[in-house]
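Course assignment 3, question 2. Fill in each field.
Student: A.L.
Task: Predict the tertiary structure for the chain below.
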Amino acid sequence: MGSNVEQAVGNSSDSFSGPDKDFGKQYYATQLGSYDEMYADEEKTRPYWADFFSSIERLGVEELERRRHEIQRLLRENGVTYNVYGNEQSQARAWRLDPIPLLISHEEWPLIESGLQQRAILLDLILQDLYGEQHLLKKGLLPVDLIFGHQGFLLPCVGTIPSLSSCKHRQLTVYSANLARGPNGRMWVVDDLAQAPSGFGYVLENRTVMTRAMPDIFRETQVRRLSGFFKAFRQALNHLAPNNKDNPRVVILTPGPLNETYFEHAYLSSHFGYTLVQGDDLTVRDGKVWLKSLDGLQPVDVILRRVDDSFCDPLELLIYSRLGVAGLLEAVRRNNVAVANPLGSSILENPGLLAFLPRLAKYFLNEDLILPSVATWWCGQAIERDFVLSNLSRMVVKPINSRNKQAIFAANLSTTELDLLKAQIKAKPYQYVAQELISFSTVPAFVDQHIEPRNAVLRNFVVSDGMGYCVMPGGLTRVAKAKDEKTVSNQAGGVSKDTWILTVKPEKPVTVWTQLERNGVVDAVNEPLTSRAADNLFWLGRNIERIDLAARLMRTVLAKLHETQEFKDDIDAAGLTILLQSLTQVTGTYPGFATGRADLFKSPEAELLSMVKNSQKPGTLPSNIRSFYQAAFSIRDLWSLEIWRYIDNIHRRWFLKVVNGEVTINQLPKHIEELMTNIVAFTGLTTESMRHESGWLMLDSGRRLERSLSLIALLRALLKPDLSDILHHQILEALLVCTDSLGIYQRRYRSMIQLPRVLELLLQDPSHPRSLVYQLQQLSEHIAALPRDRIGTQLSMEERLILKIHTEAKLLVVEQWVEYGKSGLPFELDQLLVNIDSSLKQISEVIARAYFSHSLVPQLIKDTAVEDEY
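Answer field:
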């Protein structure tokens, strides 16, 4: 747009403008020399934008700001994140969504849609040719240096991609293009994404949140639905399966929770019901891909990969990759598994191809490109190289092998830097392309309660539909963080927008699920639990119990500290000393209070604050909370939205308010109470909402095992010998408080607290959820229910171990060893608890070897040392 409009938002807090001003000028200042999505020309707003902003104006600034906060709240509670590389503190950055969507009219959309379909078909044909007959290279339609000099061309993949004549579907399953509108209002393709395009999971989440936060605006605007695309996506993956097409096992291969778009991997896994796997979860046996699960090896039919293709097979591709599956390419050759997108498809992301696409469109389709690419020159040809060098200051230069390399804006370089770039191009011209520097269009964005222009790029998504392609009627729009910035990536802090394709009449939603004939029978499908997921669930259960006990003991310590400071009683001080020492012993945060230094017991505040704020020291509350969150995030796909909100609350609120906040010792009890409330909510939801199958059994086994260990540690730390009656009573009461057992004790015994009765309750009461026997009983039942190969009727090692200690705990006669009126644990009882502790740790190791080893399937594991002992 050519006008220099500098109109500001109206002064009224209830509206955006005065009624007597031109509608197009009253909202925000456009950028001189750029095309703006709102305007048909310098003075006229597009009608659909005018209608949209009429609705926005009715809301007013304050209401729009409230809805923006609601959007961010929903995204945060839903756990929508984007990991940022290279900055540990900024990892898992909250996803940001602007309440003002990008609007595209129903008149313009068919041209964009057909252009994307044409481009996907063209790239599919190029892919098949390059890994097949290679006519394009033989006829000189593509330079050999451009293809063989690109890291994305994988020689071992030649011959693995069938030609169109030999199969009934396209090989390029998913395709994405970044579009930008130039100053003339025309859409241009900035780059093609064909390896593992990301973003359509975020599109679905953006749409879900927008329809909840802006339902009235969404209905009034009449927007195309996204469900048809996702139904086509599911069908496309099913059609890829070489076997078992009616019910194929589809897995999503992710690099892991540190990947920038890991949320999307987990989100799509949950949305479609596909198993989320990492490379170690899969193995190749006899040319077939298998999923390692608690139930043994399960065949895999289709892999939707989110791992770069060169990392997918360390046997034939990058040998140092830890993300892939050794032998995967051989399984593809034998047509025993399908991979979407095919291994080798990253060659299509070579930016040098853009310069040759018009000619290839004529060759394959006898058509001109509907959506042209940004003007591109590959420097491997002399004429093009000389042109680029002569006009370098007006170019954007990109290495063709551009993984982790930023585009170079030559206009921003100094003379010395420009000369260095020229020398690099001359030395290896085939490694560089140059593109025309164009100005992106601007779109309205809601920033600091104003509507302002931001440069934008639209990412569209296309999925194969038999011999054609289905285009998502929407997309992921990203806008720059600041007004004059050109970079719109999420890594650079860009903000996302929902993209609304307008329609003349409302559309009905389309279910993504397969529709059966009337009276059709649906068979239940149980997705297997991977050994990696089982490992994370087990340790998540252990960590939540560690957090729970540490929080309860810390709460008891703080109450005793307050009491000691208020009454200055020597017995209270002695009780505080025992509690502080026990806190260090139980949590393992040595040296802590175990040093016996008198100054620490007189002024314990600094050490206590360290235990709740220092996330780097093992055993502290934030350290355990971080371990809990990392385990939960690694299996993000397994959690319901409600459960995830409490997982996020446990982690985010503690780190926000305590670790990174200015918290005092007197404020700690409030934060601990909030933490414990979230823990109770999490454990309650997992018990009531998760199916009690292998995953829940692993989670609860971890909890029961850790609660047993914690109880034993607490008993041995607190029950000191030779205490006065008053001090002994205080310690027993603290023990009951820490184990949430004081009320039960008072209702049951109705007398003063006595050690034998306390031990009877905490060790042997089978109906008390905090007792040792209760934990061992639950653990025994869980272990028996886990899948396991057996030899006849022989018990597994972990079954023998748990049977032994469970029996010993039940046969214990407390009065035989514990005398009334005496404090401390008798030697015999202490040794029994030590033996149970050792056996529980042994059970943990046996479970890990049996179920968590990524190189083994569950089997009967023999351990001579343990067998000889019993």
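Instructor remarks: Residues 1-27, 854-870 have pLDDT under 50 and may be disordered. The two ends are 85 Å apart (CA to CA).
Grade: pending
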